[in-house]
């Protein structure tokens, strides 16, 4: 994935070095023993994203929950849409992609493609680096920009993660597509009612629109809803793997509801013509 990356300090290209990547100006970034490239250090220190990075416990819970196949319908929907939106031999980026689980499913649907997962959590990146043989992983804070070349990617995934409209637009090729997943209003409604979990923000769709306004045009939308039948341990992992882990105790909590609703909104966005030029002029 090095040809698609750029130095987060000066913006130059990166070349391989001994257990590292280095730009012509001499900025060097280590390749972690677990296989991911550490680029976040060149973004000027810890930012808002780093402060909310997934902990080891959160990543362990997410890996267990996703590995059990509970969100398989979502991964399958992403893979199906990716097959329609991106060339089979293109490049895909998952911004805030965590363990790389969903991107791995997309790459299975695009047999000649390669992909890159960016995240701020080193615990998630250790798993993403080995999630798929055609996937690379690097640390980066989406709020501080993407350490990737302009126009390098054909598809950009954003699943329950922060959105930087200007940087997403810059990263995509002119004919590329942004595929966003946000929770539907009914998402985990039964668990929220029984355990007092965080509510789905009713303004989430409006916040998504504002985040992408001026840079993207929404092309399509799908709603995906299905039921989950969970053991007490699986319900605990579901709570522990997301933002509720920062606000609630994540013990077993008794028997979960008989069925828990999973609800997602998938939207496809195309880069707005001229947005990149306007951003360059402002800069």
TrEMBL record:
Question: Which Pfam families does the annotation name?
Answer: Zn_ribbon_RlmA (PF21302)
23S rRNA (guanine(745)-N(1))-methyltransferase N-terminal domain location is 6-39
Fetch the SUPFAM superfamilies from UniProt. S-adenosyl-L-methionine-dependent methyltransferases
Q: Does the keyword Transferase apply?
A: yes
Q: Which InterPro entries match?
A: RlmA_N (IPR048647), rRNA_m1G-MeTrfase_A_prd (IPR016718), SAM-dependent_MTases_sf (IPR029063)
Instruction: List the keywords (alphabetical).
Output: Metal-binding, Methyltransferase, S-adenosyl-L-methionine, Transferase, Zinc
Q: Which amino acids does the record list as binding Zn(2+)?
A: 7, 10, 23, 27
GO MF assignments: metal ion binding; methyltransferase activity
Q: Which GO annotations describe the biological process of this protein?
A: methylation
Q: Where does S-adenosyl-L-methionine bind?
A: 71, 99-100, 187
What is the protein name given in its UniProt record? Methyltransferase type 11
- Originating species: Streptomyces triticirhizae
Question: Which lineage is the organism of this entry classified under, starting from the top rank?
Answer: Bacteria, Bacillati, Actinomycetota, Actinomycetes, Kitasatosporales
